[in-house]
Amino acid sequence: MSAHPQEWSGIGPALEPVRTAPRRRGWSALGMGWILPAVVLAVWEGAVRAGWVRPHLLPAPTEIVQTLIAFGGQGLASHVLASSARVAAGFAIGTVLAIAIGALVGLSRRAEGLLDPTFQALRAIPSLAWVPLLLLWLGIDEASKIALIAIGAFFPVYMGVASGFRDVDRKLVEAARMHRLGSVAMVRRVLLPAALPAVLTGLRNGLSLAWMFMVAAELIAATRGLGYLLTDGREMGRADIVLAAIVLLALLGKITDTGMAWLERRWLSWRDTYDTAARD
User: Fold this and answer.
1) What pLDDT does 222 receive?
2) Spatial distance between the Cα atoms of 181 and 9, rounded to a whole number of angstroms
3) What is the mean pLDDT of residues 48-61?
4) How many other CB atoms sit within 10 Å of the CB of residue 199?
5) Which class for 176: exposed (0-12), middle (13-18), buried (19 or more C-beta within 10 A)?
6) How many Å apart are CA 255 and CA 262, to the nearest integer?
7) Whole-prediction pTM value?
8) Which of 46, 54, 101, 217 counts the most CB atoms within 10 A of its CB?
9) Of 80-84, 97-101, 166-170, which gets the smallest average pLDDT?
10) Is the pLDDT of residue 11 over 90?
11) What are phi and psi of 194, to 5 degrees?
C-alpha cells in the first residue's frame, strides 16, 4: 500500500512527507473507555437486585451472563459463526462491487452522470423494503440474507470511494502530470493514497451497516444466528436471551470495528492530523 500521495519518484525534497513514528494509546486512555460501561452495569445490577426493575423485563447483567453460559460453548459458537459468516460474505461482495463502481464514478464524470443519480435513489430505500423482493428472487436460504447484507455494505463504501477519488487535491494531480506519470501509476501512487482516508471511513461505515442488515436478514427467516436468537427470545418471552444476543452483537461489532480502526491507523500513519497529535 502506498504511503503518501506525494511519495512518487522525482518529487523534490520539499514535497517529501514528514513521517511520524508509530504511536500507541496509553493504557490509561484505553481504560477510560471501560468506565462508563462499568458504571452502567453496576447501577443496572443494583437496580434489579433492589427490586426497582422487574427482572423478567430487564434481567440483571449476571443473569445474562448465566444465560450465555447455559447456551454452552458449542451452541453459542454455532450462532456466532453463522452470523459472522453471513456478514463476512455480504460485506466482501458489497465492498468489491462498491470499490469498483465507486472508483469508476469518482474518476469519470461521464460515469458519474450516468450512474450516480440511480445509486443515490437506491441508497434512500429502507433495508426492509428489499426483503420481499429478495425472498421472491432468491428464496429464504442463505443467498437472500447475504444479498441483503451486501446491499447494506455497498452504499457507505460506494460513497466513500466515489467522494474520495472525486475530492483528491487538484494540485497533486497536476504535479503528477508534470512528472509524466501514466494512468496506472497516477491511480496507484497518487489518487488511491489520497483517497484512502475517505475509502477507509466508508469501509468502517459499511461494516457497521453489514451487522445491522444481518440482524434484519436473520429476523425474517433463519434457524441459526444472533438475529434468530432475538426472535426466539421474543417469542418465548425471554428478555435474557434477547439481551444476550444484543450483547454478542455489540461485542462482535466492536471487535470488527476495532480491527478496521487499527488498519486505518496503520495505513494512514503518514498523516499529520489533530488525532495523531493528540495521541502523543
Assistant:
1) 80
2) 10
3) 89
4) 23
5) buried
6) 11
7) 0.80
8) 217
9) 166-170
10) no
11) -70, -30
Half-sphere exposure of 230 (CA within 13 A, CB side): 20
The answer to whether residues 128 and 152 touch, using CB atoms and an 8 Å cutoff, is: no
**pLDDT above 50 for 148:** yes
Size (the chain), residues: 280
CA 24 to chain centre: 22
Answer whether 180's CB lies under 8 Å from 167's CB: no
CB atoms under 10 Å from CB of 10, counted, come to 11
Closest by alpha carbon to 212, among 115, 94, 68, 102? 94
- Calculate ∠ Cα 188-2-260, nearest 5°: 110
Q: Which residue has the cell 460513497?
A: 159
Query: Which grid cell sits at 60?
Result: 440483571
10 Å CB burial of residue 142 (0-12, 13-18, 19+) is middle
